[in-house]
Design brief:
about 30% helix; about 350 residues; Porin
């Protein structure tokens, strides 16, 4: 028993010593690299440019903190510039931008040559990908009314709240202009009310599940921490399912009708198109941004499948319901977070 406990104690002690040794080694390496950075800076300041790269080389692989590595690459770039090594200067600039894609020059202290080199590269994000979610409201607009009663006796369509979630991408096209696209799953719902023959009140709640593929041009106003934007375009929408809950209540209560949810998918056109308009705000956070988006989509195509309008006798004779030709307009409010991805590329200054 003593041997077992003694062995466990020795293992624990050995592990503790190893951890302390590793931590000490890391701290010692960091101190050494910090000294190397100061030494390299001194060599640069005194004009001994050929010594700088050799001093920094080992610590660039392992030993520098992120801030120290940025300082080291900046020092290497300056050394390359003043040693007439433009190729090496560009290579080290790409290393610097890999460490910090959003590295900012300081005109107050950075030499003009360094600023010129930096400005010769497009350093903005080429694409930002994010997850979004939120709520929506659907409003039905009748194009041609149909009814088992007088079609001029117009039904009432009430907006209800639905939900959406999905993935979106902003792709840079030119300066502040982006192409925005993605895939969204959307639950849309509305309520239909109608008085039939001055005798029965028909009420129907329809829930639809859609997949939306939007495509729009987005313009961002400025490059501040909080950026407003506007966009417009269109979307392709694919209906996945639709169900309705029907309830008919007679005025005198002697001929009511209700039942389980009814599948309405066959009564709907599965492919629909929308015009899309939107605005929003993005708030810079890390290598990405938080996003608040408000979008209005205007239905361009008829939701009802006119070929199947009379195909369900249960709806026709039990509830007294017939589809009108209608479109859906939707208001969406979404929030999300986008992660930005960068690929620095040398371009003409006029193209930045």
């Amino acid at each position: 028993m003593f041997n077992i406990k003694g062995s466990a104690f020795i293992r624990s002690l050995s592990l503790g010593v190893l951890i302390i040794f590793i931590n000490y080694s890391c701290v010692d390496a960091q101190n050494l690299c910090s000294q190397n950075l100061k030494k390299a800076q001194k060599e640069y300041d005194e004009g001994r440019l050929t010594e700088v790269a050799g001093i920094l080389e080992s610590c660039l692989k392992d030993g520098f903190t992120k801030d120290q590595k940025l300082q080291a690459y900046r020092l290497l770039i300056l050394t390359n510039i003043f040693s007439d090594e433009p190729g090496m200067a560009e290579q080290n600039l790409l290393h610097l931008l890999k460490e910090d894609p959003e590295y900012k020059i300081n005109p107050a202290v950075d030499p003009a040559e360094f600023i010129t080199l930096y400005n010769s590269y497009n350093t903005s994000a080429v694409i930002s990908i994010g997850l979004v979610g939120g709520i929506n409201q659907s409003r039905a607009h009748v194009r041609n009314a149909f009814s088992t009663d007088n079609a001029n006796n117009k039904a009432t369509y009430l907006p209800h709240i639905g939900f959406q979630a999905g993935a979106m991408a902003d792709i840079k096209l030119y300066k502040n202009l982006q192409l925005t696209t993605g895939v969204l799953a959307e639950s849309k719902t509305y309520e239909y009310k109608n008085l039939l023959f001055n005798y029965s009140n028909l009420d129907m709640n329809e829930q639809q599940l859609w997949m939306e593929l939007p495509l729009a041009l987005k313009y961002n106003f400025g490059k501040r921490k909080l950026i407003p934007y506007l966009y417009s375009g269109g979307s392709f929408n694919l209906l996945l399912s639709s169900t309705g809950n029907f309830k008919r209540v007679s005025i005198n209560g002697d001929n009511d009708a209700s039942g389980p949810n009814v599948t309405l998918t066959s009564l709907r056109n599965k492919i629909n198109y929308y015009a899309v308009f939107g605005t929003g705000l993005r708030y810079k956070l890390g290598y990405g941004y938080l996003n608040l988006d408000i979008k209005y989509s205007m239905g361009l195509t008829n939701i009802a499948n006119s070929k199947n309008r009379y195909s369900d006798p249960n709806l026709l004779y039990y509830y007294g319901y017939i589809d009108s030709n209608f479109t859906l307009n939707n208001l969406f409010i979404s929030v999300g977070y986008f992660k930005s991805f960068y690929k620095p590329k040398k371009v003409k200054k006029s193209d930045k």
